[in-house]
Specification:
The structure holds three protein chains of three kinds. By secondary structure, chain A is an alpha+beta fold. In chain A, 33% of the residues lie in helices and 20% in strands. Chain B has two domains: 2-78, no CATH class; 94-268, MetI-like (MetI-like fold). Helix content of chain B is 78%, strand content 0%. In chain B, helix 5 runs antiparallel to helix 6 (126-140), helix 5 packs parallel to helix 8 and helix 7 (143-157) packs parallel to helix 11. Chain B is globular and about 80 Å long. Chain B starts with a helix and ends with a helix. Chain C folds into two domains: 47-77 and 145-349, MetI-like (MetI-like fold, Orthogonal Bundle); 90-122, no CATH class. Chain C has 13 helices and two strands; from the N terminus they run H-H-H-E-E-H-H-H-H-H-H-H-H-H-H. In chain C, helix 5 (141-177) runs parallel beside helix 8, helix 5 (141-177) runs parallel beside helix 12 and helix 8 (212-238) runs antiparallel to helix 10 (254-291). Classes of the chains: A alpha+beta, B mainly alpha, C mainly alpha. Chains in contact: A-B, A-C, B-C.
């Protein structure tokens, strides 16, 4: 009896282990098949996702999976890129990042700058056949400010877009129907602003302002944007295979797109790869047409014509906690620290991915002024307060220490647990400790979410943090240092600065483009003179774009990559 | 026996509930919040908390969660895939993780058994040392390094297997990840088999079998290995569950849409519901497997059955 | 007739000399190794040193520990000192460079082809020697490897010892008292074990400030369960034995019996388990480093060095080799030493 049981047990154990893999493989194959057939349900070309992929698809590597395909809920660059692949807003970006008409054929601005009237084109269609109407925009925008939706990017309408009543609706004081956006008729959208916003039209390519078809939305309700069946396209491509947080998904060219003749690609094939070495190898085997490489790999690819450094827009800076740390409240100490940083060697020696050393509070290459010049093209304009100068730094340091009556200082710097910030922080620590005798810097490495919370709570001494521009105007950076702004982690406060910013946003200068531009320089100078932040570098992504691919547009703001004009030759 | 099994099942249910409660408390202790972007201000965060009911006391959240769970609702993701029901998120990933983990365990167990038996039969010889070295090297090189090396050699240089996981080539693209994952199982099984085999080989009943004239493969496989295998099952069972969560580095490298990387991402981005649901599934699998092993063991070995029913 | 005689020969069995020899006797039994007058530990000692692999393991452990203490001081570099002008230099050793190996050159596999480069000659660094090369901050990998080995060893040994103390006490108490106490204690264990380790460890590392002590606590929290299982099983085996009964009749208290009577008898398996849990701890620490929860930079452990080197695996493979080899040797040595110890301690195994 016992023997038989044993034999039985052994046999069953073995079959279980064998079956375990066999049946599981079968289930996954089954589910993949189900997903595939689901994806193609309703379309004539049925079959798996594989069938939809073709040789003329562009194979693109993504670093992180999509967080959300709901235009009003999405917050990350990957999600924005995918949403914009298949959705058009009122405006779109051209190759230089300027806003040009998309769904809106044209728009009028009232003289006081408070009313925008968009005239929508009549041939734009959703992929279910419905026309794209002004009502779709009203619905989308109301969702963005609806407190029950609780969109993280609602501030795009309130603080940044200054759409009338947006702030009140977000705070729950008004009904969402009071939002200053109305559909005059199916093809005319009227937007009322609380204050003139000079860059308002350029916000319209931002996915938070994208339209949502109300009728379709109501049929999906909670599942909106979680599968190809619950998304609707009015853009260049149509999503045809996707699962939440998928590592592989696919879009096909939208034959019904109003500008379909412009789109040359047959489709887009996205592959999420978190390991950059694996990604580069896949690129080399030809499985990918575009991939990111990390700084270490740049040595491997820098001679390759396919290698590109693409601006990512993020300014990385160190924020000193001015309000809570007495040592950092001392201006000489802050000056010493910012002047002891060798930004050049951090960018070119350690990061190597094309990131540029930055000596201004507003990073270069994203904001163009009324005269067409780059706001921060001149990186030497604050050379007297922000440059690498060991002797000056030591002088400031000595002065600061005497003022404080101390001979040594120990500071903690809070850093993200990611690769690049840790690298930069290690160099900063080393440089500071070398140039400034008596300074000890301890690194506190935390996951990003926690680091952000700690900084928001004021629970830090020095913090290495970043900011990506939300719109192409210096205000996206300068607006942060206003007294009481939630991103002003160091709680710096300056009345002159506050009044300049107020003047430029809602005051007299809001409509005077040139005057505003000059005033913004003054504001930036105040930030730099007071060493409110120590700017370090502007992030670039080192990207490989196969030489057979042309026409992919890269932007540091809003939509990082646009494929409408991309061509892949075989 | 029946009474014992029933008792174990009831305690298991309470254990699971206790684990769930602890997970809830742990989530509260977790620093940071799921809604923590540079771009969010306090009002918006409060609105988000209200939307997901996170502003309520833990105990109420707990009971609500248990109630919803019984109806099959694990809540929605806050970050990883916003507002996606957890069930939908896990549904397609769990089978992939189990498939690759299962293949890895099967492979690791098979190779481990061979190494272990070899080491025990030729105990204290060069073969023993070689088997030990192979199994220890397998476990001392971190699986992510091993995975990348495999991928570089077999995927990139020789182009034998795809470097990245793809559902269209399920089997071929699972080979490299399964091998990289199997190393730990292989080493544990090899070590355990070796010591069990040594013990069995030195036992009186082996002497008896040998004196009865049984020799060669029959002696080793029918008598020795069979008896050594029973305790190995107890080691193997938790390994299967561990592979589910331990596979994250390999998942990251081969771009496998599995649950391991999901769990780590969820922990790092404070996606409470995903952490709780995955941890709970893990715990449930663990407890069920342990329960099954215990019961099986009781059925096989009367000594254990007796001592357990006494307790 | 002749035939009959033959069959008679067959039936009447004549014993041969071979029948009076023991089977599987390779000549060992004839030698008396028992040293009857010697103590148990002396015997263990002798058995241990008879095994080559065990001795090798022990020697390697000692060697690596010595290097971990002295290695970082053997050249002029410190583990955190950066020199951005001398980064990513391949290994270069004084004497060996003349042989054409370790001369500071490396093959760079670029997307446009493979080329051999030597940064030392390119940058005119004639008198610069990095024995294991330098990393992407220009830090000496030799120094970092050995200080990493030091950190890893400290973490692993401390975690193993602490988890031995906690796990052992827990298991012994649970096993000795049995009944309801055992029931409750085992359910607690089940709950602790039921929560994925990754969740507990990462949460703990998030709540406490990162650092060596936190990692030790995290490792200890997950490893003590195995230890307590072994201690409990041993206790269940021993507690019904006569010497325990004798001690009890003499009026000994429970804790006296547990820690003074039973404990010395199970110290063997416990030490073996500690030896096995050290490599596990080293490995878990390496995993934590990979997830980004390891020792805070610029300090390093073997695990954090491996995960740093991992990023340069395809560009500068020499950066990951030293920490991996040291870690593999360390884990192999601990396993061999533990195997040897277990066999030396277990009289049943030695006879095989």
């Amino acid at each position: 009896m016992k023997r038989k049981l044993l034999a039985l047990l052994m046999v069953s154990a073995m079959t279980v282990s064998l079956m375990g893999c066999g049946s599981a493989a079968a289930t996954t194959a089954g589910s993949a098949g189900a997903a595939g057939s689901g994806a193609s349900a309703g379309t004539a070309a049925s079959g798996s996702t594989q069938a939809a992929a073709s040789a003329s698809d562009l194979n693109v590597m993504l670093e992180t999976p999509v967080e959300s395909l709901d235009p009003q809920q999405a917050t990350d660059g990957t999600s924005f890129e995918i949403i914009a692949d298949y959705t058009d807003g009122l405006m779109q970006m051209d190759a230089d990042g300027k806003s040009v008409p998309a769904i809106a054929e044209s728009y009028d601005v009232s003289d006081d700058g408070l009313t925008y009237t968009f005239h929508l084109r009549k041939d734009a269609k959703w992929s279910n056949g419905d026309p794209v109407t002004a009502g779709d925009f009203v619905f989308g925008w109301q969702r963005a400010v609806d407190p029950t939706v609780a969109s993280e990017y609602a501030y795009m309408l309130s603080d940044i877009g200054q759409v009338k009543n947006a702030a009140e609706i977000i705070a729950g004081k008004e009904d969402k129907s009071k939002l200053g956006v109305t559909a005059v008729d199916d093809n005319t959208l009227k937007v009322e602003l609380a204050a003139p916003v000079s860059y308002f039209a350029s916000l319209m390519y931002f996915p938070t302002f994208y339209p949502v078809n109300e009728k379709f939305f109501n049929t999906c309700a909670d599942t909106y944007g979680t599968s190809p069946e619950t998304t609707l396209s009015d853009g260049a491509f149509v999503l045809d295979s996707y699962e939440p947080a998928a590592t592989q998904f696919h879009l096909t060219k939208n034959a019904d797109y109003y500008d379909a003749s412009r789109v040359k690609l047959a489709g887009l094939n996205y592959q999420v790869i978190q390991d950059s070495q694996q990604a580069l190898m896949s690129y080399q085997t030809g499985a990918l047409d575009m991939t990111l490489v990390n700084g270490e790999q740049v040595d491997q690819v820098k001679d390759d014509p396919a290698f590109k450094a693409v601006g990512a827009g993020y300014l990385w800076y160190v924020s000193p906690n001015i309000a809570k740390v007495p040592e950092l409240a001392n201006l000489n100490i802050r000056m010493a620290m910012t002047m002891a940083i060798d930004r050049e060697s951090i960018a070119t020696g350690v990061l190597k991915d094309g990131s540029t050393p930055t000596f201004t509070a507003v990073p270069p290459q994203f904001a163009t002024g009324p005269d067409g010049s780059d706001f921060s093209a001149d990186q030497k304009k604050f050379a007297d307060v922000c440059t690498f100068d060991a002797t000056k730094a030591a002088d400031y340091w000595k002065k600061g220490l005497t003022e404080l009556g101390k001979s040594s200082i120990t500071l903690n710097m809070t850093v993200d647990a990611d690769d690049a910030p840790q690298k930069v922080a290690q160099v900063l620590k080393e440089e500071w400790e070398q140039e400034l005798p008596g300074l000890t810097v301890n690194l506190v490495v935390e996951p990003k979410k926690q680091r952000v919370q700690d900084m928001q709570d004021g629970n830090f001494q020095l913090g290495l943090t970043r900011w990506g521009p939300d719109y192409a105007d210096p205000m996206t950076y300068l607006g942060m240092w206003v007294t009481g702004n939630s991103n002003n982690y160091g709680l710096w406060s300056n009345k002159d600065f506050d009044s300049i910013i107020a003047e430029c946003t809602t005051g007299d200068l809001a409509m005077d483009a040139q005057g505003r531009w000059t005033k913004l320089y003054d504001a930036e100078k105040l930030v730099m003179d007071n060493a409110v932040i120590f700017p370090i570098y502007t992030q670039c992504n080192a990207e490989m774009v196969s030489t057979s691919v042309t026409g992919v547009e890269f932007h540091p703001v809003a939509l990082n990559r646009v494929y409408k004009d991309a061509v892949k030759s075989n | 026996m029946k009474k014992y099994i029933l008792k174990r099942i009831v305690t298991s249910v309470f254990t699971l509930l206790a684990i769930l409660l602890i997970l809830f408390i742990l989530m509260q202790l977790m620093p940071g919040s799921p809604f923590n972007d540079e771009k969010l201000n306090n009002d918006q965060r409060a609105a988000l908390y209200a939307k997901y009911g996170l502003n309520q006391p833990v105990i109420i959240q707990f009971f609500k969660y248990v109630f919803n769970m019984l109806r099959g609702d694990f809540g929605v993701s806050y970050n990883i895939s916003k507002n996606t029901p957890i069930a939908q998120l896990i549904q397609s990933r769990l089978p992939i993780s189990i498939a690759i983990g299962g293949a890895a365990v099967a492979l690791g167990a098979f190779v481990g058994l061979i190494l272990g038996v070899t080491a025990a039969l030729w105990h204290d010889t060069v073969w023993d040392t070689v088997a030990t070295i192979i199994s220890v090297i397998g476990v001392s090189v971190p699986s992510y390094v091993f995975a990348l090396a495999l991928s570089y050699q077999f995927g990139f240089q020789w182009r034998l297997f795809p470097m990245l996981f793809s559902p269209q080539q399920m089997v071929a693209s699972s080979v490299l990840p399964s091998i990289s994952l199997s190393m730990f199982t292989m080493a544990s099984i090899a070590r355990f088999t070796r010591s069990e085999m040594l013990e069995v080989l030195g036992s009186d009943y082996m002497l008896l079998a040998e004196s009865k004239g049984i020799s060669g493969p029959a002696l080793i496989f029918r008598h020795a290995l069979r008896n050594a295998l029973i305790p190995i099952i107890t080691v193997l069972a938790p390994l299967i569950v561990d592979l589910m969560t331990g596979s994250l580095v390999v998942e990251k490298i081969f771009a496998i849409p599995g649950v391991g990387s999901l769990l780590v991402n969820a922990i790092q981005s404070n996606d409470y519901n995903v952490v709780i649901a995955l941890s709970f599934i893990y715990s449930a699998m663990y407890i069920i497997i342990m329960l099954a092993v215990d019961i099986l063991y009781g059925v096989i070995d009367p000594r254990i059955r007796l001592s357990k029913s006494e307790a | 007739m002749k035939k009959n005689a033959q069959t008679a020969d067959m039936t009447a069995y004549v014993p041969t000399a071979a029948d009076f020899c023991l089977k599987n006797n390779a000549g060992e039994i004839a030698i008396d190794n028992n040293f009857a007058a010697q103590s148990f530990w002396k015997e263990v000692f002798i058995r241990y040193f008879r095994k080559v692999s065990a001795v090798f393991g022990l020697v390697m452990i000692i060697l690596i520990s010595v290097m971990a203490v002295t290695g970082p001081g053997m050249n002029k570099y410190s583990y955190s000192e950066q020199n951005l002008l001398q980064k990513n230099l391949a290994p270069r050793v004084h004497a060996l460079e003349k042989l054409g190996i370790f001369d500071g050159s490396e093959n760079m596999h670029t997307t446009t082809g493979t080329k051999k480069i030597n940064y030392y000659t390119e940058n005119k660094l004639d008198n610069v020697y990095y024995w294991f090369g330098s990393d992407n901050f220009g830090r000496d990998i030799w120094t970092r490897t050995w200080s990493g080995a030091r950190v890893s060893l400290i973490i692993a040994v401390a975690a193993a010892v602490i988890d031995m103390i906690i796990g052992m006490s827990y298991g012994l108490i649970s096993g000795y008292f049995g009944g309801r106490v055992d029931m409750v204690m085992q359910r607690i264990l089940e709950i602790v074990n039921g929560i994925p380790r990754l969740v507990i460890v990462t949460l703990l590392l998030l709540i406490l400030k990162p650092g060596m002590v936190t990692i030790i606590i995290a490792l200890m929290l997950t490893e003590w369960v195995g230890m307590s299982r072994i201690a409990r099983a041993e206790m269940l085996k021993l507690k019904e034995q006569e010497f325990v009964l004798a001690s009890r009749t003499l009026g000994a208290g429970s804790f006296f019996i547990i820690f003074r009577e039973v404990l010395p008898n199970i110290i063997g398996p416990i030490i073996t388990q500690v030896m096995f849990s050290i490599p596990t701890a080293i490995f878990t620490e390496a995993f934590l480093s990979f997830v980004g929860l390891g020792i805070p930079v610029p300090q390093c452990s073997l695990g954090s060095l491996i995960s740093e080197g991992f990023n340069s695996f395809t560009t500068h493979p020499y950066q990951i080799v030293p920490p991996i080899i040291v870690m593999a040797l360390l884990m192999l040595s601990f396993n061999l030493a533990a195997d040897g110890l277990r066999e030396a301690l277990d009289p049943k195994l030695k006879e095989v």
